[in-house]
Amino acid sequence: MRVVKISEVKKEPFKHPLFTGPDVTRQVLLPDSKEFEVNVVNFGKGVRNKFHAHDSEQILVVTSGKGMIATEAEEKVIGAGDVVIIPAGEKHWHGATKDSEFSHIYVTRLGSKVTQLEK
């Protein structure tokens, strides 16, 4: 067994064309997991990811700030303590509101693929 303290995990810049801006960092929480990818993603104010889909379920656990999650059919405001499950294949985006930073833990199946659906 191993306990990880999020506050002790280094934040690294997370540059990827999936994001609408450069103010994003990532904290890799369980680099040795054999089944899951578990990271914290920290978004600066107004930064989100673009529409995308995963080939496995994705779980988001909001840890701080105020964010948005959207599908083609709806948008919802989410905040600390909210847990979201996104079905495999569902087109969606998530990120910070214009007036708040936003952080969440994301969990996906290790090796799952993300398809960016927005330029």
Q: Keyphrases for this structure?
A:
119 residues; mainly beta; Jelly Rolls; eight-stranded antiparallel beta sheet; two-stranded antiparallel ribbon; 10 strands; globular
Helical content (DSSP H or I, runs of 4+)? under 10%
Into which percentage range does the β-strand content fall? over 45%
**Distance between the terminal alpha carbons, to the nearest Å?**
41 Å
Can you write the helix and strand succession as a string?
EEEEEEEEEE
The gyration radius over C-alpha positions equals 13 Å
Helical element count? Answer: 0
Give the domain tally. 1
Give the low-pLDDT segments.
Answer: none
How many DSSP-defined strands? 10
In CATH, the topology is named: Jelly Rolls
- Main sheet record: 8 strands, antiparallel
- Helix and strand content put the structural class at mainly beta
- Report the CATH C-level class: Mainly Beta
Mean pLDDT: 97
- CATH architecture classification: Sandwich
Say which CATH homologous superfamily is assigned.
Answer: Jelly Rolls
